Amino acid sequence: MRITKQIKKKSMALLTVVCLLAGSMSVLAASDDTDNNEEISAQSADGGVLCDDGYIEYTEYPSADNDDDIIYIGTIDNTKGSGTISNWSIASGSSATSSIFNASSGGTISIAVNVSPINKTVRVGIVQPNGVKRYVEGSGSVGHDFSLTQTGKYRVYIANDSGTSVTANGSYVY
């Protein structure tokens, strides 16, 4: 009997040590995670980044067939650092893209566009110098500022997967 009591005491002591260690490890893990909470909360469930204006900004990397169904119809005024989106008619499953313009890292490209029919959702975004697309999704009136991390040649684009043709009007400033 005495041996059983000694084993129980040793087992309880060992279990207490294990629990104390496990508890301190979870506290350590929780404290390590707090530095990243701001970044995590800014990420949406589907991989986009929630922006101050309420839009979720997504990133799309180029594929081998990068220029399929892209129509280049934009006009640009290089002297003012702005462009016009004037009656861009975009078929379902297609994209319309502005002319190329130069913009610098640290700057922004601000896009404001009205889409009709107003209940159709489109992607409004930029094509970066490396071919990566960044965009927001919206319908009706869409406005967003894209912060630039690269210097080089950019395009503004609107992609339509709504199931029907849309018309877009607006402008962009860089």
Spans where pLDDT lies below 50 across 5 or more residues: 7-41
Distance between the termini: 84 Å
- Counting DSSP H or I runs of 4 or more residues, the number of helices is 2
Q: Assembly state here?
A: single chain
**Residue share in helix:** 10-25%
**What string, H for helix and E for strand, traces the elements in order?**
HHEEEEEEEEEEEEE
Class by helix and strand content? Answer: alpha+beta
Radius of gyration: 26 Å
Q: Major beta sheet, specifics? A: 8 strands, mixed
- Report the count of strand segments: 13
Q: Roughly what fraction of the amino acids lie in strands?
A: 35-45%
Q: Averaged pLDDT, please?
A: 78
Shape type: globular
Describe the protein in words.
The structure is a single chain. This protein has 174 residues and is of the alpha+beta class. The protein is 22% helix and 43% strand. Strands 1, 2, 3, 6, 7, 9, 10 and 12 form an eight-stranded mixed β-sheet that branches. The protein has a five-stranded antiparallel β-sheet with strand order 4-5-13-8-11, with no helix packed on it. Strand 1 and strand 2 (56-60) form a beta hairpin. The longest helix has 32 residues, at 2-33. The radius of gyration is 26 Å and the shape is globular. The relative contact order is 0.19.
